[in-house]
Amino acid sequence: GQEPLQSPQDLQVHVVNTNFTLGWSHPGEEPNLSFSAEFKGPESRGAEWQQLPGCHNVPGTACDFSKAIREFYDPHYLRVRAQRAGQLSPWSKVLEMVPFLEAQIGPPALELQSTNGDIKIKISPPEANQARKMWIDDVSFKYNLVFWENSTNSQLWSKTVFPMDTIDGLSPDTSYCFKVQASLPAEGKEGLFSPVTCATTTHKVKDLLCPTNLRVLGLDMEFQLLWDHQYPQPVTYNVQYLTGYFKKLHEDYSVRWLGVPGCASVTSRSCNVSSVITTTGFYYLRVQARGEGNKSCLSREVRVEPLRTNELGPPGVKLDLSDTLLHIQISPPGGPKGDFMSDNYVLSYRILYWKNSSNAEEDPKVKETKQTVATLTELTPQTLYCVKVQAISEFYNKSSAYSQEQCTHTPAEKTFSLLILATFMVALLAVLLMALPLGFVLYQAYSKIKYVFFPSCQPPLNIEGFGGEFCTSPYLAAPEEPVENCSVIESMITQEGTQIPLKDSQHSKQSSRDSGNYSNDDTTLGSKSSAETLGKELI
């Protein structure tokens, strides 16, 4: 019997642009083997595997399945098995892949043109004229051109170029070879190089009418273009500019050049081009010279990156003195364009300050700050201090000139010790003035409460103690003097139908401190006894 077929191994996917190739290996080298692949994509339903187009019953260990992939950002699953005369191997391990992550950038197309000692290049994007594209935005491509003299042991040069660019500075009548590579820095992808193409330079013809040595000077976002010329006859100049974005496009940008306002038909060799450099992008400038007989010549281009070309001017400085504190207010360089400068540069400031005396000028001290307000402390009283400030941009490695020095005189020293002592004494006196009346009121309140609730003498415990001195208080009610209470009894005695009135009998009120107070009950009993005695006598 035949041995069972083994599964394919080492599945790999090779993707260039939208071209997909599936490869694998198989341990057996038996004849009449074929392979079939299946896949599951984002359009597959559930666990349903589908036959992979272009990879069914293939005799080799690779197949092209480009037509099967429609979605480039979703995961796809692939598997392969071997077959022979109706015998099938188990499926291989499943390979997962996301097309965009696996894809490589294909080689761009490169065209060369030799003109006046230079080589003009034209680059077409990797997927030019294709309906299906892996790379949607052609403007995002960055092109790396590698070139060398077509000779043995020649040196390689590398340069970042635009789709349409000019390579100058080459030796005349020399063959050069070129290849170009596209990359997407944001995606971290580098593409494949184009095939090598060669061209031969011509002899360069020098035209004295053409302006040379173009350069741009910038200070606080004010830009001046300067150039040289060697033409002996009178010449007028027209300055033109191009927004750098157009150079990224894969098209002819010659019609995009525009004239700089105020720089048309000038006779001087400089012109202010600030009016057209209004953003933080990049620009190209060139000068067209026009001589007698309407003859003209265009200069080479000069690139302007505003934030890199611009130089920082000195910042504005204002001093404000408060006792022995010196406040420094800093304005960003640029004056009216200071807001633009502070918005586009991360600026820090270096402050130099020193004592400026008639005897000797000491070495400056340094203070650095990222704020527009700084304070100098621990200054000597009654001393002349001078200050100057420099603006710094670390990111662009730029520093301004120092501002014009400004000086101010610190005031004389105040007698702070006497002032503190006087303040302490006044505060102490105020506390004493407030404490004395409050203490007096509290003392009086304490005395009254003690006198009322805790007297120095005690009242008698029994009646024998009343011979002594009474405790009196002006805040308590005085005790009443004890008195005897007597009552008058009127009675009528009837004898044999005759009423006999009795005379009023009155018991005089009598006060006796010796015998104490009589109760009302005793008095009533006494009255009853007297009435009974009187009745007996009458009988």
UniProtKB/TrEMBL annotation:
<keyword id="KW-1133">Transmembrane helix</keyword>
<feature type="region of interest" description="Disordered">
    <location>
        <begin position="500"/>
        <end position="539"/>
    </location>
</feature>
<dbReference type="InterPro" id="IPR015373">
    <property type="entry name" value="Interferon/interleukin_rcp_dom"/>
</dbReference>
<keyword id="KW-0472">Membrane</keyword>
<dbReference type="GO" id="GO:0005886">
    <property type="term" value="C:plasma membrane"/>
</dbReference>
<dbReference type="Pfam" id="PF09294">
    <property type="entry name" value="Interfer-bind"/>
</dbReference>
<dbReference type="InterPro" id="IPR003961">
    <property type="entry name" value="FN3_dom"/>
</dbReference>
<feature type="compositionally biased region" description="Polar residues">
    <location>
        <begin position="513"/>
        <end position="532"/>
    </location>
</feature>
<dbReference type="GO" id="GO:0004905">
    <property type="term" value="F:type I interferon receptor activity"/>
</dbReference>
<feature type="transmembrane region" description="Helical">
    <location>
        <begin position="416"/>
        <end position="443"/>
    </location>
</feature>
<dbReference type="InterPro" id="IPR036116">
    <property type="entry name" value="FN3_sf"/>
</dbReference>
<protein>
    <submittedName>
        <fullName>INAR1 protein</fullName>
    </submittedName>
</protein>
<dbReference type="Pfam" id="PF01108">
    <property type="entry name" value="Tissue_fac"/>
</dbReference>
<dbReference type="InterPro" id="IPR050650">
    <property type="entry name" value="Type-II_Cytokine-TF_Rcpt"/>
</dbReference>
<dbReference type="InterPro" id="IPR013783">
    <property type="entry name" value="Ig-like_fold"/>
</dbReference>
<keyword id="KW-0812">Transmembrane</keyword>
<feature type="domain" description="Fibronectin type-III">
    <location>
        <begin position="311"/>
        <end position="413"/>
    </location>
</feature>
